[in-house]
Amino acid sequence: SRRPTTGTTGPTMATDILGEAGLHFDELDKLRVLDPEVTQQTAELKEECKDSVDKTGQFQKIVGGLTELLTNLQKKPKKNERMKATGAQNLLISIAKQREGQWQQLHALIAEKKMQLERYWFNDLCSCLLTLLILIPDPLH
Q1: Separation of alpha carbons 23 and 36, rounded Å
Q2: CA distance 25 to 122
Q3: How confident is the model at residue 16, as a pLDDT?
Q4: Which of 5, 44, 39, 40 is nearest to 23 (CA)?
Q5: pLDDT average per 10 residues of sequence, the chain (141 residues)
Q6: CA 29 to chain centre
Q7: What keywords tag this UniProt record (predicted)?
C-alpha cells in the first residue's frame, strides 16, 4: 500500500496533514479530494435519486393508463346513452304506429257501426211505414 502507515497504530502525521488539506485515500489507496465517507454518501444519494426517477416514471405511466381508462369510461356511457335514446326513439315510433293502427281500427269500427245503424234505422223506418200502411185503411178500397 502506498498510504503512509506507522504499523498498526493508525494514520501518520502525513495522512493527518493530507486530511487537513482535503485529500484522502480511498479503499483502493487512491488519493481523492473528497472524504471517502462523503464519496460513499454521494454514491448512495445518486442511487436513491435514480430509483426515485424510475419510480416517478412508473407512477407517470400508471397515471397515464388510469387517465386513458377514465377517458374511455367517460365515452362509453355516452355511447350507452345514445343507444338508450335510440331505443327510446324506436319505442316511441313503434307506439305511434301502434296507435295509428288502433285509430284506423276504431274508424273502421265506427264506419261499420254507422252502416249497421243506418240499416237498423232503414229497417225500423220500413217497419214503421209498413205498420202505418197496415193500420191506415186504404181510402181507395
Answers
A1: 10
A2: 134
A3: 75
A4: 39
A5: 47 73 76 76 91 94 90 78 89 94 94 89 84 77 64
A6: 63
A7: Cell projection, Coiled coil
Length of the chain: 141
β-partners of residue 25 are 31
User: Three-state DSSP class for 110?
Assistant: helix
What angle (nearest 5°) sits at the alpha carbon of residue 27, between those of residues 24 and 28?
A: 100
Q: Is 67 left (phi over 0), alpha (psi -120 to 50) or beta?
A: alpha
> What letter represents residue 68's amino acid?
E
Specify the residue for cell string 430509483. 51
Name the region of 29 (left: φ>0; alpha: ψ -120 to 50; beta: rest): left
Please give the pLDDT value at position 57: 93
